[in-house]
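The freezer alarm interrupted the setup, so I double-checked each line after restarting. Inputs confirmed:
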Amino acid sequence: MERVSSGVEGLDKMLRGGYIAGRSYILTGPSGTGKSILGTHFLLDGLRNGEACMLVALDEPPSEIKANMATFGWSLDQLTTLDATPDIKAHKKKNVIDVGTTLDVRDMEKVQDVRKSMQIRTMEVTIHSVQKMIKQSARDLRERVTGGHYSRIVIDSMTALKRFSLKGEDARVLVQSFLRFLSELEATTLIVSNPLDTNNLETEFLLARGEILLHKWIDGNAVRRAISIERFRGSAFDERLRPMTIGRHGISVFPNASVTAKGELTRTIDRLFLEGRVAAEVNERLDDVLQSLESVRAQGGETSEAEAAVLRGVVAMHRKRYEEAIRHLITAKSKLSGELRLQDAAKRAEAKRA
Amino acid sequence: MRITTGVAGLDKMLHGGLIPKRPYIVSGTPGSGKTVLLTQFLMEGIAGGERVLLVALDEPPNEIIANMRSLRWDVGDIEVLDANSDIRRFEPTPIVEISDEQEPAKMRDLPEEIRKTPEVESHEVTVHSLQQLLKTLLRKREYARVAIDSMTGLRYFCMREFEEDVATQSFMRFLTEEKVTALLAVETAGEAEVPPESFLARGEIRLHRVRDDTGIRRFVSIEKFKGSAHEEMVYPMEIGAQGITVHTDGRLLPPPPPVD
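Predicted 3D structure, all chains:
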């Protein structure tokens, strides 16, 4: 399968050669971890090879992106930019138009100041208009250059697109359709996404063919950064967390180094996973003990000791001392079983007498 | 009679394999190995000369073929139903539902490129049309094994949000009535999430993916298996060139000591 460089040498090594061409990938991580920079590396690499590349800017106006990237000494002049940052909303009822109907796509070198919202009509960005503009732009390119097509697209960010441009109940379906549209363009796409709710699986995460996760944490008084590949369909990949820096020339990844300072990160993940399982076990035992408690009570048995143990167990559980909780619950259970046996024996004796 | 999953260690955990003619779910976070397990299950059927069907909802078939090449599996004999919806039209042109005359194709007969949305009419997959189509196919072709990748795709893209749970329940019920041995992939957002499908399925195989200092560690557990005893422990597993291997002689490693 054809590979496309990520623009960062160390990351390419981790990816065993680069992204698989024509597919879409997620760049994710908390804010300030370098997602947009990593996306820009990818575009820059394409521009250097003379490929047609497109940035769909939804978070920041292109003028700011241009300025930010200039600090790394990068020139993005040849980059096609789609300014899909919405205008200031006019709080009037009429005259809202889709961005696609008036605004055009332009090269980064023509980007000057922030585009001002118009006095009379303001523009709204919808996923549909963004799609239409990309389509139009791809068609123009095809007409200009035979066989020309966008080989790399970066959407920065999907979170903004979904938050501001997707209203109504069909969000998932529209995102699916948008991603299908991108994959039919046969461009390799990076989608910057920052899920707001970790309990909910975002559509782009379900559909992306891979996921690059950026990490940042405080170690002593230094900011540490790392990068990991969470999944990568159709390819082997480096499964370890690797250190990364953002320096004067952008991102550097060190694929042979390991993350030495054990940050909070890995421990938290492990702990959460195991904690979840143990907590479930405690719950199960608790249910079981409570049931026994009911039946002993129903037969008028002695339960005070068991109750005390259950109480201690529940307290331990609340303090997240799960093993201690299990011990208390086992004690309670054995007390109750003993009581049940006693009652059984008493019943049998009575039956015999009768 | 049990149906082997294609993963020896997993069959051992299931005390022999799956009970036939029932739907089971394979759950886990994205990247936990669900698709590999589903494919391995189908390949096991192919090896036994069975007729098998893959319903692809998350990925176009051309990509699935390319991906499985890295596992060196010849998936050519798997029949695949491409149930990926086309690009949606925003104009009020007629939307064509996936036709119930559509025939699954053998993987090896598929084109290299992604199927392009036609200019005139795009087709949309809804749970109703898919169910109708499957009904016809299951009766006509008598598939011994069916894999649905994924149930989450079906839920996200083929159902209206308000009817999700009912439609899922009805779809699972349909599979049960058709008496088909099916594995359904279900994506979970986190480790602790219990997907609603697990209440409806006859069994749940859970794939776990945990990151630690040495990389990604993988585990598998049987969360539920109606009508059979099964292993209760969580066992380590690997995804390698041969697909999934479960180490039933391994133990779940104890939690790391708390660091103060």
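Quick read of the result. The radius of gyration of chain B is 19 Å.
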